[in-house]
Amino acid sequence: MTVDALGDEQSLVAALRAGDESAFVAVVDAYGPPMRRFALGFVRAGALADEVVQEAWLGALRGLDRFEGRSSLKTWLFQIVANTAKTRAVREARTVPFSELGAEEPAVAADRFLGPDARYPGAWATYPDQWEDGPAERLASVETRGVIERAIAALPEGQRLVISLRDVEGWAAAEVCNVLELTETNQRVLLHRARAKVREALEVYLDEEEG
Amino acid sequence: MNGLSCQELVELVTSYVEGVLPDADRARFDQHIGACSACVAYVDQMRTTIRLTGTSHLEETLDPALRDELLARFRDWKGDR
Description:
Chain A is mainly α. Helix content of chain A is 63%, strand content 0%.
């Protein structure tokens, strides 16, 4: 069942409150898979992610009467997953405050550009390749998928969560800000750093292929 | 109006593709890529990166055991109401 098939949200929430099992199944089928991927972004182990999803749904059902519709049901559900997952990650003693932006990191390493004494400081020293010419075909490969997935997995938590929701799940910036409780600016900084690192991983991969 | 260097431009790419660059910065950005094929290639690489990241294979169904577990919890919750 697709998200569109969920119908209008007010009647959906009313059906859930009334204990309508088919409504529950519809929401679970629409949001369950992305919720589990989202939980996995925090806790990183499949079994833990399953527990987070279960705990979050239980919390959502218990809190359903308090849901006021100020955010969408989807945003509300994912906020519960985020809170559950964060609590869980603390208990597992592995937590980094994900909204921390970390040190200033350049999108492209400084040594790719000419230094301050050059005639054109800050101009490319080694040019980026035009990917669409030759490598486009290789970029479509299964192997490339692996390169992207590994690059995302290696990102710090905040960057990983933001790029997963924005570019993998295809969410809008505003939704991501709501669910992760980020300002627009911080959301964009995290996305910028994440995308820059994925691009770099693809560049390294293509260079190796050529070499 | 000062021109952007390539090194400055790469830090604005996300704001540029997100459409949130202030007008003056957007004009400087456009002016730069109008004259710099290396930065055109870079911006294209970023767009390709975004597009490829969006083609991940996503599991669209839950593991049946987890789905059953959720349904069982729903029934418990309903029974307690």
